[in-house]
Amino acid sequence: MTGQKEQEYYTFSIFRDLFDEFPKGKIIQNESPDFLVRLNRRTSIGIELTELRGQNFYDQQGHYANPQNIKSQIVNTIRAKEEKIYLYQKHKTSQLWLLIHIGSFENKINFNLKDKIERWEFETEFSKVFLLEIEAQQLYQVI
């Protein structure tokens, strides 16, 4: 397994452990999407992982530097991945999920991110979208 694949599996494992409704099924590490969860012979969920997109993410301590930009960066990340949905659909999954991850927001957010995400509205072709803060192991369902 390459370094990138190992990191993807680590991130995916945190997500799977934190998401109480994660479905039971055979997990297959893949490419485009990064993971498939085979629920049965005909049904699977494709899960694509990606980092939160934007500029000037981290300060010198490695923490998220511009929390006021989170919503627009989530939108930009979703849009960028939607451009590749046709690739993900080649696997004929019943659902496509997007897992957006970031290392840490620690000590840099002066508002309740969970409340904001619950109020923000996003449009996407993905069935579900999640935001994972890896260091704090916080998972937010965006859609």
What does this structure look like?
A hairpin with a 5-residue loop joins strand 2 and strand 3. This protein is α/β, with parallel strands linked by helices and 143 residues long. It has four helices and six strands. The chain has one domain.
The low-confidence parts are none
Radius of gyration: 15 Å
The helix count comes to 4
| Outline | globular
In percent, how helical is the residue content?
A: 25-40%
* Strand count: 6
Query: Beta fraction of the residues?
Result: 15-25%
SSE class: alpha/beta
Key structural traits:
single chain, 143 residues, alpha/beta, 6-stranded mixed β-sheet, 6 strands
Brief rundown of the structure:
This protein has 143 residues and is an alpha/beta fold. It contains four helices and six strands.
List the helices and strands and how they pair.
Elements: H1 3-18, E1 26-29, E2 35-38, E3 44-51, H2 70-82, H3 85-88, E4 95-102, H4 113-119, E5 128-133, E6 138-141
Parallel strand pairs: 3-4, 4-5
Antiparallel strand pairs: 1-2, 2-3, 5-6
